[in-house]
Specification:
alpha/beta, Rossmann fold, Argininosuccinate synthetase, chain A, domain 2, 2 domains, 5-stranded antiparallel β-sheet, 12 helices, 14 strands
Length: 400
Amino acid sequence: MSRKKSVNRVCLAYSGGLDTSVILRWLIEEYDCEVVAYCADVGQEEELAGLPEKAKASGAIDCVIKDLREEFVREYVFEAVRGNAIYEGVYLLGTSLARPVIAKHHIEVAKATGCDAVAHGATGKGNDQVRFELTFRALAPEIHNIAPWREWDLRSRTDCIEYAKKYDIPITSSSEKPYSMDRNMMHISYEGGILEDPWTAPDESMFILTASPENAPDEGVEMIIGFEKGYPVSIDGKELSPAALLTQLNKVAGAHGVGRVDLVENRFVGLKSRGVYETPGGTVLYAAHRALESITMDREVMHERDRQSPRFAQLIYNGFWFSPEMEVMRAMVDASQQNVTGEVRLKLYKGNVTILGRRAPNSLYSEQLVTFEEDEGAYDQADATGFINLQGLRLGAGKR
């Protein structure tokens, strides 16, 4: 059987950009199949306008748009915050967290529309191909996957533009951006183009979510963030949905220059890649959550969770959200967060997040024990002598 006859209907992850517009037509021509376009709304905003019409103009039989914003923030972003998941000490995983929820619903749309294959526009050099396809494999191993960038003979943006012209594919622009950009409710990422040189600083005009710290207001702003069992639930006492809460934090923190990161990271496929990220709201949540944990988490539980946090981040980054080890990891995180309820007061000022206070109904912090004033016998300082002697036994062994 020829490759063109191997599938009947393909569900394509579709953004309306040059790549996926070309892929849509390429699937029809190369596989002689029908194509259902699928777009996940995880906070791209204006990028979603007119997508159904554009997809059908390119040959799709249908275009399904799913609003995943609340689910994305509640079940993925907030779970990462609870687990203090930070990749290589810096990256807050905005793109990595969006891929599993997008891929999960990709499979659901494919099944609902009678597709026997799925396709995505991730390249053969990046992490996203792994994240999408591991999710496909975990949730629907019977569905065939097509990765055009690993199959076709188009090798550049110029090739894609020429292909679009050949088939009258509607594309908005033929001019090449100086970088690529990916946006969702958690962040905006920039890579490629002029950013491929790690010595070249990003141009200030590139940034969308954040003001430069130099141009941020000269007056800082204070706010109080409330948590329940590690989940962010309120700002200044007002309860908000997950998406609404993150949206508000993005706006306020971004205006004060919070959340820019520039790093060279290690991709799962083996390459080093330079990425620039704007994650204003997420940066605030991580700082506030950590501050609340300092008075609500048992010391040994916190230290054990912290030992596992890099592994948690690595699993997210590498695309193993739907894996047995992730189920174990998330159960551990959930158990660690049962007492993380309370409020954190903080200040945003010219790129900085400063913790001003924290309080919790079941705080483990005791003013009576830590005071330098009279503690009414709550702590016998003389007990420390035996404690230190026992801790030092092994240090002096064989040296006398």
